[in-house]
Amino acid sequence: MESGEEIEIADDNNEFSSVMGRKYSPVMAHDNDNSAVVEMSSVRPGSSSSSSLPNHDLKKVKVGVHPNMASDEREESLANHNTNGPQRESKLELFGFDSLVNILGLKSMTGDQIQAPSSPRDGEDVTLTFEQPKPTADKSGTLMGVFMPCLQNILGIIYYIRFTWIVGLAGIGESLLVVACCGSCTFLTTVSLSAIATNGAMKGGGPYYLIGRALGPEVGVSIGLCFFLGNAISGAIYVLGAVETFLNAVPSAGIFRETITRVNGTDIAEPITSPSLHDLQIYGIVVSILLCFVVFGGVKMINRVAPAFLVPVIFSLLCIFVGIFSARHDRPAVGITGLKLESFKNNWGSAYQMTNNAGIPDPNGKIYWDFNALVGLFFPAVTGIMAGSNRSASLKDTQRSIPVGTLAATLTTTGLYLVSVLLFGAVATRDKLLTDRLLTATVAWPFPAIVYVGIILSTLGAALQSLTGAPRLLAAIANDDILPVLNYFKVADGHEPHAATLFTVFICIGCVVIGNIDLVSPTSTMFYLVCYAGVNLSCFLLDLLDAPSWRPRWKFHHWSLSLVGALLCIVIMFLISWAFTIVSLALASLIYYYVSIKGKAGDWGDGFKSAYFQLALRSLRSLGANQVHPKNWYPIPLVFCRPWGKLPENVPCHPKLADFANCMKKKGRGMSIFVSIIDGDYHERAEDAKEACKQLSTYIDYKQCEGVAEIVVAPNMSEGFRGIVQTMGLGNLKPNIIVMRYPEIWRSENLTDIPATFVGIINDCIVANKAVVIVKGLDEWPNEYQRQYGTIDLYWIVRDGGLMLLLSQLLLTKDSFEGCKIQVFCIAEEDSDAEGLKADVKKFLYDLRMQAEVIVLTMKSWEAQGEQQESVEAFSGAQQRVASYLEVMKQQAQRDGTPLIADGKPVFVEEQQVEKFLYTTLKLNIMVQKYSRMAAVVLVSLPPPPLNHPATFYMEYMDLLVENIPRLLIVRGYHKDVVTLFT
């Protein structure tokens, strides 16, 4: 529909529609008030409907020019009003409406915090820019995006050239224990990783991003750098493995050969040839440099062809298992017994002993191998579980693919290792297991070359992954600008981290010079274990604190599992080497200390900040008065106990108000402030206030509410509340939500002072930037034992920082509402794309880990719905009362010779606008009654009191909005986001 096109609403079958035959024109937000409303032209003269309406001659008076406005500002305001007119207005003006089509950019919830749009009271214009979405690259699924990369990184060189040797030394029994110990560690870490990774969107940096955002920048950088070192050293392990395999397959390629003729001091029939240390060093350096050139020249190509490296690996595994089952039948060999129970029994026990540098048993050797040492050697065979999380940006569904793919790869490889222990232990003698490092190739069917190719491709592919992944991890740490010394490794978006790649290759070559996988592997293991311990501790802290932002989609986790995983990592570190453990932890501690001193401050909403909120004193010292990160946001309701009416003398607060305050806390965590006001002079009523405060505190304890009681003495309620909203609380423990009851009795008991007081309180909250939750139907609010069924319906009209969405989620955590489902009704303009809006809202809710049904109601469907006789009577009654109020004000103004005055101040009323406001609230009320008749509770946006309108008029709008809705929460957020997409 075009912007200036008018539509006419008429329904011959509906009395009210024919009565209200009007013209409407969709319009844009006004410059001055950033608001929106259903615009209604007056009834056409001579129309059939005009006679059906009460005849109120509502004359127009200009609106929008404040009497205190400067002359030039007034002229500009009038110019804007006159030139833009209806073209610059928009529907739902009463609600300060910013269209959901605009909101769903949701920039402040999807990334760094930005300034929220100005309210009508800020006097600032808001410009919203629309851009076509950029085309995105093809995303990977669970299989190719997570499972295959993890499998390729986990299944590596240790399995091929060290696993049979480990079985020979440890025996079948203790080898199973080695695999179970290491596999349990990575399994528990994978569970923790799945929980953190599914608690929001992830950026680059993999485990560094997860740990940093959970435990803070200091811990994140220190553990992230340790993980970087582990990846860089792993590259050296893969290079050495490829070179060793090549030299074993082609002995003639060696420059320096080593031949062993004695094992354990006894002569052997056939000499054992093993690669020389110098050959490993020379070839390893050459291969590292070649890989460096490949990484520099074709990183994108490497990522594309990386899965192809896995095909020969899987084929070689198949050949190994076929060879094991066919051993001794077609190719008898010395030491290969085939699957024999006798071999299984002989190899069950351990045979720890001294070996030389090549791993050959030798009483005069320099290296002694025991269970602890073998754990350190084998552990790199189960690492690689972070490969999927490192690719989070290229996954279709991060929150599903990472846990499923990573756990599948972990369980698959662990199962493979356990089966392999049994098969290798039963297929060869112990001497063969100890002296043939490439037993996997020896038993392979039809010939060993297949396994040689598989090993080399596997190790080269894994080495390329390490040399491409580690620099990006270092660049991600540098780009966060926490540690100034890392500024050399910063990289702009879309550019390759060349400096970080050179540094990674330098570390890799340094470890290659050592020339012994058995010595390099435990070092890499230590850094991996430090990282895994950090992941487990992160999940433990987040799970233990259980902040409202902690809503991972992966539900199979518990803080105790994460704690066991972290302790297991530490235990394995000490099992391997207490000296290496102390060095690793000392290095991480030094980095932490250095970052604490030299690093730049950054608030990432980490778990420690959430802990500070539960420790008030430390919270005040640590958080100060800065804006709270959405992940650490806790509702701190200020419950206004003074009711609009009277309660028994021994009940200082409405009991259902206390129940509702508890519904705003997740598992009862959080603080509430219960406030009441006593009219009078403070010097005269100070003792009364103390007694009332004691009584209110006792009542709070009785209702089992976590909160404090405060009693304020003031000349009147308005003055008392204004002082409360300015001074209550300390630092970030100030209340952020004002909770009160809707004054349903104001007209029935003719309480003429309520409208001005009620409107004044709402205006004070807006000025103080406090959220407001008004409970209508408080007497019907359920207690903790009353189960509710049906739906929790949200009529999301204005941007509220996600408060309404979060409140609905908090309600679901309570026993009384846990059987309900959430429905989100989005109000859209006529010319908006309803289906596109629905898809955007569903995607947004999915990223927020919120389960809700989305229903889009366009203005066209709004206007097309019918009205009930009750609605006709309510609307007509409101019109009559508004006209009566206006007439009284005019007579008073004429008698006194003053402008229109209400509530002790001048007002400017445009009667047509008042009629539009009434009609807007009427139509929304009809919509709620139509779609939410069976709802357990309805949440709707609270419209701000229009500028320069009498308070009585606003109460008429509100009464029309809440008419015949038994249980309603009227919510107004504030200019801070309380939900975020990111973990």
List the helices and strands and how they pair.
Layout: E1 7-9, H1 15-19, E2 22-24, H2 71-84, H3 100-103, H4 107-110, H5 142-154, H6 157-161, H7 163-197, H8 207-215, H9 217-249, E3 257-263, E4 266-275, H10 277-297, H11 299-326, H12 341-346, E5 354-355, E6 367-368, H13 371-378, H14 398-427, H15 430-435, H16 439-443, H17 449-479, H18 498-512, H19 517-545, H20 559-576, H21 578-598, H22 607-614, H23 616-623, E7 637-640, H24 655-663, E8 672-679, H25 682-702, E9 707-714, H26 717-727, E10 737-741, H27 754-767, E11 771-776, E12 791-796, H28 803-812, E13 821-828, H29 834-847, E14 853-858, H30 859-864, H31 869-896, E15 901-902, E16 905-906, H32 911-931, E17 937-941, H33 951-962, E18 968-972
Parallel strand pairs: 7-8, 7-10, 8-9, 10-11, 12-13, 12-17, 13-14, 17-18
Antiparallel strand pairs: 1-2, 3-4, 5-6, 11-18, 15-16
Helix pairs in contact: 5-11, 5-14, 7-13, 7-14, 7-19, 7-20, 8-9, 8-19, 9-10, 9-17, 9-18, 9-19, 9-21, 10-17, 10-18, 11-17, 13-19, 13-20, 17-18, 19-20, 19-21, 19-22, 20-21, 22-23, 26-27, 27-33, 31-32, 31-33, 32-33
